[in-house]
Design a protein that fits this description.
With about 575 residues, the chain is of the alpha+beta class. Helix content is about 40%, strand content about 15%. The longest helix is centred in the C-terminal third of the chain and has 28 residues, at about 430-460.
């Protein structure tokens, strides 16, 4: 391999328009929002847009929107409403038809979401978004923005479900369903599972909730977001530890009086997230105990949330904070190796990282995953042989050879033989054996697919990607051997080529040896791969051409996901 840098096939200059007023990652009709409300905006001056969606299902990015209803209200006065059916361009199930009353016939001539979405962006401009179970509605809107190549505006948001649970006593409101709250507040409109009716009802519920806290010094949007009916006074008294934290992405570190890290976390807004530990929004008992032990908070500003997630992972690995449970054992992987002399199976599992060039498949985060791959190999070699029969030298040799193929990214022959065997079992009506082989193969394929993708990242000397900053500028990020190496910000109008050159020179050096096992953080590569596939970034440069091998397990992922779904 040479060190020559190449660009993606078919893209001679992927950032040729970076210095234009409108980023090429967005459509030509990008809407700039009006001045959004701040945390100190009085509630009487805050413009809320209460929104409700009806959809074909529960999964953003897969299911589609069938109806949008929104109400824009300021100072308790409704200014205007937005309502439309949407052609989801996919069938509506009978269950959803019965639930919402929206039929396939009704949406057949309705506008599609790409026609509706620009008007919705204008409607919500400069507002605080409100929804009942806001995570559901906003996740669909963000997924739609991503699919249509729009930058979703960073409007503040409120969830009336969470707000009701914080404000109302459980005896008064055992349920916070919209229908229950409508009955509690005697709203004029009642929810009907139609978008505009539900949005109108949510407006009345929101006003009822605000009235409940109006006498408790809740006068601004920040007060409302932070309000907790009951809080631990000892914890609340320590809220000054959050003073000085910026409203920026980053990593925060709670430390005790001896400067020992107690807990490491990440946030897209450092100040807002950390304040949540003091005002009662954090309900985990361990976190309350941690805050009481904390003496001060350090933080690291980051350019992007992705950088923050990497910094968090590395700090947890380095300091092993006692109140972090996730990501502490990043090196505790399992490897699949040929059978030891005393083994009763055609494979063995070990936590010891193999020597260079050793015949070992991995690393895997869980032993059960390594066992699934080993079981698939054993089934391929021994199907039809009684498990009580002793292992032969030929079988052990065949097992080692398959493992060598898997370490080279060659899995297609093994998977195709398993699929053929699965068909034979089903034809012979041996359904229990077929189900076991299907489940084992699916788990093994998913694990090997991820492993082969991470191997591909591992052998890439450098990848440069660009992410829009929302203001016509770009964040450029360097990935080296599958690890985060650095980020630079290029403002609109600046020379992006100079920024990329600077990133080449300043990014962290990450050493790797072509034949060495991937003993460094597999969890970080998982974050990197998820980031590269998020749809929010553009690939600018790669050290070597990047493609998935036809012989790898990656091409069988769709089959494995269907098989795993069949088990459920």
């Amino acid at each position: 391999m040479t060190n020559e840098r190449v660009r993606l096939p078919g893209a001679s200059n992927p950032l040729s328009n970076l210095n234009s007023p409108i980023p090429t990652l967005w459509p030509a009709h990008y809407f700039s929002a009006d001045e959004s409300p701040t945390e100190t905006t009085p509630l009487c001056d805050t413009t809320f847009v209460v929104i409700d969606l009806e959809t074909t299902g529960m999964t953003p990015g897969i299911d589609a929107i069938t109806e949008i209803g929104a109400v824009r209200v300021t100072g308790g006065v409704i200014e205007k409403e937005f309502a439309t059916l949407v052609n989801p361009e996919q069938p509506i199930s009978p269950f959803i038809e019965d639930l919402t009353g929206i039929t396939n016939q009704q949406v057949r001539d309705a506008p599609t979401i790409d026609v509706v979405f620009p008007s919705l962006l204008e409607f919500i401009s400069g507002s605080t978004l409100v929804a009942h179970n806001a995570s559901f509605d906003l996740s669909f809107l963000r997924a739609t923005a991503q699919q249509l190549d729009y930058c979703w505006p960073d409007n503040p948001s409120l969830c009336t479900v969470k707000l009701a649970r914080r404000i109302l006593d459980r005896q008064e409101a055992p349920s916070v369903k919209l229908s229950a709250l409508a009955q509690l507040f005697h709203t004029h409109t009642r929810p009907t599972h139609r978008a505009l009716d539900d949005a109108r009802t949510t407006v009345e519920v929101l006003h009822g909730l605000i009235e409940r806290v109006g006498t408790q010094e809740v006068t601004t949007l920040a007060d409302l977001s932070a309000y907790r009916g009951h809080h631990n006074s000892a914890i609340y008294a320590k809220r000054s530890m959050a003073d000085g934290l910026p409203h920026l992405p980053g990593v925060y570190i709670f430390r005790d009086a001896h400067n020992v890290p107690l807990y490491v976390g990440t946030a897209t807004d450092l100040r807002r997230r950390v304040m949540g530990y003091f005002n009662g929004s954090e309900t985990r008992r361990r976190m309350s105990e941690m805050v009481l032990l904390a003496d001060h908070i350090d933080y690291v500003e980051c350019l992007t949330p992705f950088e923050a997630s990497i910094r968090e992972l590395r700090l947890i690995s380095a300091h092993q904070p006692p109140y972090n449970r996730r990501s502490r054992d990043q090196e505790g992987h399992w490897w699949l190796i040929p059978p030891r002399a005393s083994a009763s199976h055609l494979y063995s599992c070990t936590r010891v990282a193999p020597a260079e060039n050793a015949c070992a498949v991995g690393p895997f985060r869980q032993r059960s995953t390594a066992v699934a791959v080993g079981t698939l190999i054993e089934s391929d070699i021994r199907h039809g042989v009684a498990p009580t029969e002793p292992l032969t030298l030929a079988e052990k040799s065949a097992s080692a050879e398959i493992m060598r193929e898997l370490t080279r990214g060659v899995a297609a022959p093994l998977i195709e033989r398993a699929q053929s065997h699965l068909t034979e079992l089903a034809t012979a009506q041996q359904y229990e054996q077929a189900a076991f082989l299907r489940d084992t193969t699916a788990k093994a394929v998913l694990a090997l697919g991820s492993l082969h993708r991470y191997q591909q990242l591992y052998h890439q000397e450098e990848i440069i990607v660009a992410e829009p900053d929302g203001r016509s500028g770009w964040f450029f990020t360097a990935i080296r051997h599958g690890m985060f190496a650095g980020t630079l910000h290029s403002l609109a109008g600046e020379n992006y080529q100079a920024a990329i050159s600077q990133l080449h020179a300043s990014a962290q050096t990450i050493l790797s040896f072509a034949d060495a096992p991937m003993t460094s953080s597999q969890e970080e590569r998982q974050l990197v791969y998820r980031y590269l596939g998020s749809g929010h970034v553009r690939l600018v440069e790669v050290a070597y051409p990047w493609h998935e091998k036809l012989s790898s397990a990656c091409g069988y992922r769709e089959w494995a996901e269907r098989a795993a779904a069949a088990k459920k």
